[in-house]
Amino acid sequence: MTHRLSRRTERLTSSLIRDILQITQQPGVISFAGGLPAEELMPDLDFDACAADSRQYGPSEGEPRLRALIAQGLSGLGLRCQADQVLVTTGSQQGIDLVGKLFIDEGTPVLLESPTYLAALQCFRVYGAAFHGLPLQVEGIDPDALKAAIVRHRPAFVYLIPSFQNPSGCCYTDAARRAVAAVLDETGTPLVEDDPYRDLVYSPCDRTPVCAYLERAPWVYLGSFSKITAPGLRVGYLASSPALFPWIVRLKQSSDLHTSRIGQAWLTHFIASDDFEKHLAHMNGVYAERRNTMQFALVRHFSGLAEWSAPAGGLFFWLRLVEDVDTLAALKVALTHDVAFMPGEPFFPVADQRYPALRLNFSHATPEKIEQGIGLLSEVLSQCCETAFVTG
Amino acid sequence: MTHRLSRRTERLTSSLIRDILQITQQPGVISFAGGLPAEELMPDLDFDACAADSRQYGPSEGEPRLRALIAQGLSGLGLRCQADQVLVTTGSQQGIDLVGKLFIDEGTPVLLESPTYLAALQCFRVYGAAFHGLPLQVEGIDPDALKAAIVRHRPAFVYLIPSFQNPSGCCYTDAARRAVAAVLDETGTPLVEDDPYRDLVYSPCDRTPVCAYLERAPWVYLGSFSKITAPGLRVGYLASSPALFPWIVRLKQSSDLHTSRIGQAWLTHFIASDDFEKHLAHMNGVYAERRNTMQFALVRHFSGLAEWSAPAGGLFFWLRLVEDVDTLAALKVALTHDVAFMPGEPFFPVADQRYPALRLNFSHATPEKIEQGIGLLSEVLSQCCETAFVTG
């Protein structure tokens, strides 16, 4: 092209997820690749009561009743928060984009878990972030390592997914949450806490937002309705400490004026109804069964090939492979067997922390397909490991 | 605040429009300030047929059938375009934001009409654009002035609203459209054409998109359903020359994954139905009457105070005041009389092209309120002119 584009476009990486998702959505493919909720569990959408009042332009901050319900829900989790600190977003992805707009210039240092959410990496990278990774351990990130990295890199913010992390499934202990908050308070470092999976919980675990433990550090908390209702509506939200909020609202306004009102109206009705808790309980029951099915299948087929823990919530298993397999190459082979997974490589913010891994979604396929798919996948991976052994 | 935000945030201007709109939405205020469609003319929203299929995540580019219908509509206007060049956006405002992301780094030169759409200025400013204004004349911008400005400033793109421009109401002649296209082709300068008002037309006039006359220059065409259906749904679109499209889709994906599917599904149904043309004809009949009512009221009350032309389409009158009135101060006085308008100042991309002006919306108030409000407004402006004379 002869014309100039922004430097931003040079940082648009090849759209691996897009390409993979397109292939995996072909009929007949058993896909563990995406993070799709099960469509058969989604609530019926009934807009009759709210359609007429959702036609005109609305407020950039979102519908007042929905904001109040969200603030009430967050306070119930321990995050004291007023409705005027809540912004409704066009999906939680927009919350990530607004955080990028708010904080990141070219070269701005950002600390993140390693591995972390791929689409957050892509989004922050477009704004020019310089990434520094905090290796994830069983209990979360190490607070001492966090402090050392803050002192060394002076990040604009720390991006964490403490509950049922994507891709690792890790859920921080309460002690780790408190220790992380103490380091952030001590150093005055802003926290961006991404919490889209918090209501998908299958075993008891600590889920208090880290933001709830902050006393001084600025914070942005990102929430989602996509995983528990209907992602096609594109309604998420964020809450923030008061000083950041006016900036974020202006950036939201210049991004898309406001979020679709019809989805907000339906959610306002649904989450205030008795149906909501029933729906969550049913969804979690089904997902727990699928998690258990995948866990049993993995024990049967992947012992010796990989290491993993069954996640206490969320949507994913994260398999650390014991041999150094090229997982992108393995994916190509898997697709010829009509089974798909997400290669681990792109989830790492920096190259030298990478290890060979797979992310497997368990919410979308039925238990029968999970059984069948894990069997197929183990054959593919076994072949790839043999090849790695022969050529290595 | 002790923590760092992006340089972008330093360019977030005070949210004048937001503040004004909040005041003007108080009951009892006759507001000519916003650009709100009349709610009583909006079509009924009936989602029964499409709710179930709109729940899951969807494609970033938008729903295939809607993209095909949009491409077909654009081809009917003379802009040859395939469905795979069409991206559905979360309102036309998101199209403007994606253009900013695509083209603008800090200091990137951008050419725009003077005056031009306030929210585009705000959005491009956030990305760091350096503005250069092209004064609007009755027939559009002057092609020779455009060429001289391109040679001098080497802009990343030219942003134009050739049909029923916001705020001026100007509609480019066909000769001006062709001459502008020729200059852009000759210099290889990308065009961003914003065309949200094209279907709101009350008198015969040329409306072929300038993009349709381009042969070589890259282009992005921004369209909207907000002005002709229901803005609360937040569904707009863009089309672009093929080389730009893949970049824009990736930026869309990192902004909000995709646009709400339920609004897309309803629009797909509505714009393919016979009701659509009937609805447009009815809406244009009512708006033409409101335009005429405002024109008569202005002739009665504003002759000697301002100069203007009745617009052939769109939503606004633009009044150039004959005396040097502080229109922001005048607005404050007007609000004490329960009538509101939009001051002209913020619509100018550069200070030295400013002149005192008002923008008056005629789509939202009833004819009775228009009569009454214009009378009140002329009293306020007459007082302000006298004050200007006394103190000047």
TrEMBL record, chains A, B:
Molecular function GO terms recorded: pyridoxal phosphate binding; transaminase activity
Keyword Transmembrane: no
Any GO BP: alpha-amino acid metabolic process
Protein keywords: Aminotransferase, Pyridoxal phosphate, Transferase
Alphabetical list of Pfam families matching this protein: Aminotran_1_2
Domain of life, source organism: Bacteria
Family: Belongs to the class-I pyridoxal-phosphate-dependent aminotransferase family.
Protein name per its UniProtKB record: Aminotransferase class I/II-fold pyridoxal phosphate-dependent enzyme
Organism, as annotated: Methylococcus geothermalis
